[in-house]
Design brief:
The structure is a homodimer.
Chain A lengths: L4 E7 L1 E2 L5 E5 L3 H6 L6 E6 L2 E10 L9 E5 H7 L6 E6 L6 H8 L6 H12 L5 H10 L7 H13 L12 E5 L9 H10 L4 E5 L9 H8 L6 H11 L1 E5 L7 H13 L4 H14 L4 E8 L8 H18 L2 E8 L7 E2 L1 H12 L7 H15 L10 H10 L2 H13 L11 E6 L4 E6 L1 H10 L9 E4 L6 E2 L4 E7 L2 H13 L3 E4 L7 H4 L1
């Protein structure tokens, strides 16, 4: 309790969304306070206070016994200058951890509970451990639909919210899991060409072989300042930018940073994450795509329906016009998997190239059509035809080119990676299944998304007849080591099932 | 996937039970692999492999772009020399995280699941986040009694197990929460004087104002090598040592390091923690003390009974002879709270000093008597009288002095802290309640256990009549700042309730 002061030092370690403080083992304060490693301490300087997890250091090159070191983000958050005087203290738990403990205990939490939790997370009062505790306690089916609504609202309240000054701001979101599913890059130009405002921001790939931001980056700059993004949207009614700079719903990003390494995933958290991000981005009308298939994120129609109803309930509570479309997720969409190959597919569809992948075109038109029907002037059921007219007439391509120019065009070259491996059918028959997870894994091992030209290019899709020795797909890589690794993986499991024609179910039948 | 090698560097940061790796932001491997901060990576060197959480560094004084830094314990675990070549890789999740996710999902886990989890924790394959996920998933009432048994057995299997080579090795354990409850320091000499083997190791205070190890340290050395400890036990049949060096049930220590900062606590985990530690220490006969009271850990008799049955069930499965005693936990035991003051109480009882606290004596005799009845030669019901004879005759004191000499006697001075504050009754009446939690807090704020002489010395106990102005207790501190802080705390709540004689319930009635 002897409130001795220390000199503040910035320690150039990026501990991501966790504040870490470094004290030397010989530091008088550390010794007197009886802190334990992993203790949470309160650091105060010039009227500001932050909480941080303690790491103990034995190297004076990192901190001396007279200094307190803070990791990058902790240093920024304390907002004090290096070398200024800081004092440290035992930290109480973040008050809202009581609510987390009540949730662990099986209680239902209120809106106020969720607000105090997200507030504490947003101000970095939670350690990674505490965020993990919150995620597990609220994971699986432990949140009822009102709690999902409360969580979404609380996450929304902790961040900024964009206002586009228009009555209709539309967006689409796919829950993910299907390689090659680059519909946003077709939906945005079609919908924007219809005149609707669709300011689309996307993520980069995290566990997949390509995100929309990675693929769009083949064609144009995606890392845009908020000012530039607004300018492009106002001029062209749409954009295809990376959402990383926006800092919307910051709590969502922080929770995801813990959720992902844990590999935990719950429907409630997914719904809260998606809706808080979309509402923060100013969307008023949202189309959600839930692909269903044996190797998709959602594997059964009944699960898809339950998820749809949860989206609808929470969306209604929050006053967003939300529709859910359940799509065929039994195999990858399009041919290419990997940024360059997917960008090529997208441009083929926009250019009405006869070799363009028909499934990517059809799915994109279906989604764009549903969004166009958000327009009160469009008669129910006419959206698809309008979308098709926009695409067939070349207006979608013109709009895409305008957006590309606006964001900053990249010199485009769709040449795939230098190493190519042909994967062939070992017998005659019909392709009865393509494993989304395995195809994504092969493309990642081959180097996607880091190596833009790496990935997989599908030649046959489900239902196609093949003879023994026919090429099923190509693998492309930029580096020999990746290439060999991918070849080895394919030897174990090439992701294709060759069966009889009767093995191929219709999408409806599968449900 | 380009398996470039880096130079290993030891980074002198103590990240406790979590392996942390440090890569420079400009490091080619970091850039190529697309690691995210907080990613888990696999580090390989000379045939050894460890998993570590990644921190990204911008300071070449910590690691250069050609080095991989490892925190202290990660460096030790990899067991490779500094400057040797290491390679890094994306790490798969620890395989047993699947079982944790199944538990989150509400499934019941098998012995094999718990074994793979504890094995992965013991080999540092879990991050703090993953341990938090496991603790929350298995917290509260989510483990049935067989799962508690599986967890205990799995924790036991990951560590060493002592074998004393005797048929009976006795021990006692209190679940904690009652200040001043230093019965072990009386039970050990009494039971050892009876001739039973009682190799007692204790913890230091973590959230309490004194642990048995802190209090014993006033009298003797407690930090003993395993060899010395064995020697003392063989010679004197007992010891009172700090258990920190033993490395028994290491998974328990690692889980506690996460559990404590989270402030989560479950009966299943407590039972597994206590029993795995005791069995690893070689105990064959164990007495568990569960104090019950409104400010104790267990607040109702029905909860104490449920906990007793859980202890009994798991103990029986593991083949330890276990008995549970439910004791009066409505107020602190003895007078002193804090290492020096508690050591004084203990010695007064051993010396049969007429001012010795009667409740500490009575409770210790009751516990020692029950343990003595583990002796097959002692007739049921005669344990208490045997214990009392040992204490009254001075044999317990002689045994204690022998143990103190064996461990290494400290020069003893029971003078309390230099600053003294008298807390007085503000009205006449009868002390009807003393708040364990508040008294512990006051003692800690005053400086205990770091300042050995700091703490609280109770003058009145529950049931005592007081006049207005009578001293209820003294607060002692070594430092003025602590002293003033404690005075302030007492002004808000001095922990005592003064009421009518009829307010004082009997222990039975309270139940």
């Amino acid at each position: 309790m002897n409130n001795q002061t220390l000199k503040l030092r910035r320690v150039a370690i990026d501990t991501y969304h966790e504040n870490v403080a470094y004290l030397h083992r010989e530091c008088a304060v550390y010794r007197a306070e009886g802190f334990q490693a992993l203790s949470k301490i309160r650091v105060s300087a010039s009227g500001n206070r932050i909480l941080a997890v303690l790491n103990v250091v034995d190297d004076e090159a990192i901190v001396t016994p007279f200094e307190l070191g803070l990791s990058e983000q902790a240093f920024q958050q304390l907002n004090a200058c290096a070398d200024c005087a800081v004092s440290v203290d035992h930290a109480e738990y973040a008050a809202s951890m009581d609510a987390v403990r009540r949730k662990i205990n099986g209680e239902r939490l209120s809106l106020i509970d969720f607000e105090s939790i997200t507030q504490d997370i947003a101000t970095s009062r939670y350690s990674k451990m505490e965020m993990a505790a919150f995620l597990v306690a609220t994971g699986q089916n432990s949140l009822d639909r009102d709690e999902v609504y409360f969580l979404t609202r609380a996450m929304l309240e902790t961040g900024q919210r964009l206002n586009w000054g228009e009555l209709q701001v539309v967006d689409k979101h796919c829950i993910g899991g299907i390689p090659g599913n680059r519909t946003s890059m077709l939906v945005v130009p079609i919908v924007a060409a219809h005149g609707m405002l669709i300011p689309k921001t996307s993520s980069r790939a995290i566990t997949s072989p390509a995100g929309t931001a990675d693929t769009m980056e083949i064609l144009a700059e995606v890392n845009l300042s908020p000012e530039k993004l607004h300018d492009i949207v106002r001029r062209h009614r749409g954009c295809l930018a990376w959402g990383g700079t926006a800092r919307l719903a910051p709590v969502d990003d922080m929770l995801i940073s813990v959720e992902r390494p844990l590999g935990i995933d719950s429907q409630g958290q997914m719904v809260a994450s998606i809706l808080s991000k979309k509402l923060a981005a100013g969307s008023t009308h949202l189309l959600i795509d839930i692909p269903v298939g044996p190797t998709a994120k959602v594997r059964h129609m009944r699960a898809a329906l339950a998820l749809r109803k949860l989206f609808e309930y929470v969306g209604d509570q929050l006053g967003i016009h939300l529709e859910v479309i359940i799509t065929d997720g039994r195999q990858p969409v399009g041919r290419g998997i990997g940024p360059t190959l997917e960008a090529r597919d997208v441009m083929q569809v926009l250019e009405n190239d006869p070799v363009a992948p028909a499934d990517l075109r059809q799915k994109s038109l279906a989604l764009a059509g549903r969004i166009i029907e958000f327009d009160p002037d469009v008669r129910g059921g006419y959206g698809f035809a309008i979308a098709r007219d926009i695409l067939d007439s070349g207006r979608a391509l013109a709009k895409m080119n305008a957006i590309i120019q606006g964001q900053g065009a990249h010199e485009v070259d769709f040449t795939p990676g230098r190493y190519c491996h042909e994967v062939k059918a070992d017998k005659a028959g019909v392709v009865s299944a393509i494993d989304n997870l395995q195809m994504a894994k092969i493309a990642r091992i081959a180097g996607a998304p880091m190596d833009k030209r790496a990935g997989v290019d599908l030649v046959r899709k489900t239902g196609d007849a093949v003879s023994a020795g026919d090429v099923l797909y190509y693998i492309y890589a930029e580096f020999m080591s990746d290439f060999e690794f991918a070849e080895k993986l394919v030897e174990q499991n090439n992701g294709y099932t060759i069966g009889e024609k009767t093995d191929v179910n219709k999408f409806d039948a599968f449900m």
